[in-house]
């Protein structure tokens, strides 16, 4: 689970993160009052970025919930990347549905060569 880095969604499958959250972490989160709370919610962003985003933007009210090696800015950035269509190879919320970032436009067709008039 730690360190939480940009590559974490590629090495922690979303299905595993979801199962871990449901079975072990969600039941104890109300009692956690340390840096582990931020770590666990940031990790949750891999499978459920909306819930993690809601926690960091509206439910976050204690600097005690930040690990000494993290910041609220990092957790918001990591979560926003997944929330806005960041992709993982492991499935989950980050890859289901349409990406909020549109694909690049197709290049224009090549221009036709000018015609020479015969006189």
Report on this model:
The chain has helices at residues 8-11, 14-25, 35-44, 49-59, 72-83. The chain is mainly alpha-helical and 119 residues long. It has a domain at 8-83. The radius of gyration is 21 Å and the shape is elongated. The chain starts with 7 loop residues before the first helix and ends in a 36-residue tail after the last helix.
Mean pLDDT: 84
Largest sheet: none
Q: What is the overall number of helices?
A: 5
Question: Total number of β-strand segments?
Answer: 0
| Helix vs. strand class | mainly alpha
Strand residues, percent = under 5%
Alpha-carbon Rg, integer: 21 Å
Distance between the termini: 77 Å
State the share of residues found in helices, binned by percent.
Answer: 40-55%
SSE series: HHHHH
Given as residue ranges, the uncertain stretches (5+ residues, pLDDT < 50) are 88-100
Shape: elongated
Summarize this entry quickly.
With 119 residues, the chain is an all-alpha fold. 41% of the residues lie in helices and 0% in strands.
Keywords:
mainly alpha; 5 helices; elongated
Topology of this protein?
Blueprint: H1 8-11, H2 14-25, H3 35-44, H4 49-59, H5 72-83
